[in-house]
Design a protein that fits this description.
Blueprint lengths: L3 E4 L6 H5 L5 E5 L20 E6 L4 H10 L4 E4 L5 H8 L2 H6 L2 E8 L18 E6 L25 E3 L8 H8 L5 E6 L4 E3 L2 E2 L1 H12 L7
Parallel strand pairs: 1-2, 1-8, 2-3, 3-4, 4-5, 5-6, 6-7, 7-8
Antiparallel strand pairs: 9-10
Length: 217
């Protein structure tokens, strides 16, 4: 299936990771993160889209960095409400540059109230489901994906949270649920240290992802 891949937490060996040509590269603009990005982004292959990750940032900061880094996607990883998202989507840069907006929701291993998504349904382009933990992201462990059996919306989502190469078999099983998964987001399980990615591991993971077939309903 045409499952997209986002490699997040880019910081150190950006050129090497870009050479793998994933669909998305994520740059974290949250100063509390060890993967905080403040450098220049080199010219990337046309295939790669740039995702800016923000945590409770001001609208002014988001707009400024979206412009300065020519972002394709803004990912909101904090407590931003639907009204904030709506205002952001109505800004000139979002409209003129057709910037996508992704909203993140933290998931634990017990339950999740999917009605919390309803206010965002006509606003955001995609959801991202990440592991709820002590950090806004990059906690390094997965949540119970069975929770997503109860996902009934049409909005595509990105699956995140401690995904590693050891999860390929579980991913294959998850895809049989027929939920509208759009992409896989990887980060901490493919690092030597925060922001320094393990290229060989990423290569092996990407090869296995390519062989995951779309389930037949």
């Amino acid at each position: 299936m045409n499952l997209k891949l986002k490699i997040c937490g880019m910081r150190h060996n950006l050129a090497e990771v870009a050479a793998l040509q994933p669909d998305y590269l994520g740059f974290i603009f949250y100063q509390g993160s060890p993967r905080y990005f403040s450098e220049e982004i080199p010219i990337l292959p046309d295939k790669i889209k740039k995702v800016g990750v923000f945590v409770n940032a001001t609208m002014e900061d988001i707009i400024e960095k979206t412009h300065d880094y020519a972002l394709d996607v803004v990912q909101l990883h904090g407590q931003e409400d639907a009204n904030f998202c709506q205002q952001l989507k109505q800004t000139d840069i979002f409209i003129s540059s057709k910037i996508e907006l992704w909203k993140v929701f933290g998931m634990d291993n017990d339950t999740f109230d999917f009605s919390n998504l309803s206010p965002f349904e006509t606003i955001v382009d995609k959801y991202l489901f990440d592991t709820k933990g002590p950090n806004p992201g990059g906690n390094g462990y997965t949540f119970n994906w069975d929770i997503l059996k109860n996902y009934t919306y049409q909005t595509p989502f990105i699956l995140s949270g401690g995904i590693g190469i050891e999860d390929i078999t579980a991913l294959k099983a998850f895809l049989k649920l027929g939920v509208p998964i759009y992409a896989i987001d990887v980060n901490s399980k493919f690092e030597e240290q925060p922001g320094l990615k393990e290229i060989d591991k990423l290569k092996a993971f990407m090869i296995q992802l390519e062989h995951i077939e779309e389930p037949t309903n």
